[in-house]
Write a structure and sequence with these properties.
There is one protein chain. By secondary structure, the protein is an all-beta fold. The protein has a domain at 90-227: Jelly Rolls. Helix content is 0%, strand content 40%. The protein has no helices and 16 strands. It has strands at 2-6, 11-15, 21-24, 74-76, 82-84, 90-97, 103-106, 116-126, 131-137, 143-148, 156-163, 168-172, 185-187, 194-196, 207-211, 217-227. Strands 6-16-8-11-12-14 form a six-stranded antiparallel beta sheet, with no helix packed on it. A five-stranded antiparallel beta sheet has the order 7-15-9-10-13, with no helix packed on it. It has a three-stranded antiparallel beta sheet with strand order 1-2-3, with no helix packed on it.
Amino acid sequence: MAVILNGATGGIQLTSSSGGTMSVNPPATATSYVSTLPAATGTLLNSASSLPAANLTGTVATARLGSGTASSSTFLAGDQSYKTISSGGMTLLSTVATTSGTEVVAGSLNLTGYQSLMIYASDVGVTAGASLFRWKETGGTYSTIAYTNTTSSVPVYSVINHNLITGVTGVTPNSYTATNTAPNLALAAGTSGCGTNTGIDQATTSITFSTVASQTFNRGQILIYGLK
């Protein structure tokens, strides 16, 4: 092996007997740099070489592993990008008080990634009379979800399951009176307990609830859960 001092660039060239040459050139600035080789037998690799994972020590920066933001709520997927971890189960998305007004609104919803909604009407009451409980995507068209014989003293407790993909809605009626007599809630759409509202889907950001008779709410709340 020959060592050649290259006066033109101020560098050093190492030339092997087979004709291969490695050049070491100084930096292009006046700054001084010191390169220290490890005191062990090994192999110098260039940018095109691969380094076995077994030879890595320390921690590799997350930005070197994939695109996106690494955090405790993301994982590195096979396409080398960080994706949000889906927690699964039920997530409480909104709680709406039904204590005043003829309409109540659940706003600022983000239903992306959710397959269905579970809406729980808890202790919902109106000032007087019987009417139809209904809902819609805010700005859309109402659809009936349950009939309530509710008054201020006969509140409604009911579970409404809505598929965000198909738009099909199922209602589980339940209501009570002060004497805990027979339920005072019947189902919409005959006795099937099912209906549809294709306007409420994964793109919906706001849902409005009211009664057909535009009665005034005076008690209770509506809880909206998302299921993935």
